[in-house]
Amino acid sequence: MEFRSDVTVELVRSSAADADVLFAARVSTQGEQTLDAAAAGTEATSRDRGLINYLMRDRHGSPFEHNSLTFYVQAPIFVFREFMRHRMASYNEESGRYRELRPVFYVPARERNLNQVGKPGAYEFHPGTDEQFAVVDETTRAASIQAFEAYQRMLSAGVAREVARIVLPLNIYSSMYVTMNARALMNFLSLRTKVEGTHFPSFPQREIEMCAEKMETAWRELMPLTHAAFNANGRVAP
């Protein structure tokens, strides 16, 4: 039995660069051009920065779609249920019907806030007490152990995996590939990260925010001009 308090995100494949945005946008005024020509001269010019910022500011979003990023994510299942509310990506998750799930469970770290204050849409989260953390930690571990033992008993009795899995809790880890373009990723980040200075504040659950932060770090390295314009314009997806 393994207990974790983290998530992992790995960028496994990408075709994404600021030049992709410039290439797509300039067809409007220059007609057909090669991507090599759009990327000629690896040093970004002020004109390039200005165009990307203009597209972001005035919400001309389609040029930001001509790229692709594929992430491999390991996180508890309750995080994946939140991911899949975003119908702007392609998902492939490991299946509890076809493989025996591993006994890896999420338990919140001590620094994870436990107290929710406020009304829907304007929550604040505050640290829990030592007593609250002890209850969360002990109860989560005990429930996970009991559930996985029940799962194993059914499998040992010859029950199908798709039936036996029904007793497993939402904090069991799963893994998936998620593929999206930069425009979709910006929409995801605008909703699943809490950053000061955004035009539309968001209040994400911390565990999916942990995934979003790792995805943003990988994307920022690939498309620094686009990322900078996203931040400069209030983190609103174009």
From TrEMBL:
Keywords, alphabetical: FAD, Flavoprotein, Methyltransferase, NADP, Nucleotide biosynthesis, Transferase
Identify the metabolic or biological route this protein is part of.
Pyrimidine metabolism; dTTP biosynthesis
NADP recorded as keyword:
yes
Question: Could you tell me the EC number(s) of this protein?
Answer: 2.1.1.148
Q: Which residues form a coiled coil?
A: none
Q: Which cofactor does it need?
A: FAD
Q: Where is the active site?
A: 192 (involved in ionization of n3 of dump, leading to its activation)
Annotated dUMP binding lies at 82-85, 93-97, 165, 192
Its UniProt entry gives the catalysed reaction(s) as: dUMP + (6R)-5,10-methylene-5,6,7,8-tetrahydrofolate + NADPH + H(+) = dTMP + (6S)-5,6,7,8-tetrahydrofolate + NADP(+)
InterPro entries per record: Thymidylate_synthase_ThyX, Thymidylate_synthase_ThyX_sf
Query: Could you confirm whether the keyword Chaperone appears in this record?
Result: no
Q: Which family does it belong to?
A: Belongs to the thymidylate synthase ThyX family.
Q: Which PANTHER family match?
A: FLAVIN-DEPENDENT THYMIDYLATE SYNTHASE
Q: How does it assemble?
A: Homotetramer.
Specify the protein name: Flavin-dependent thymidylate synthase
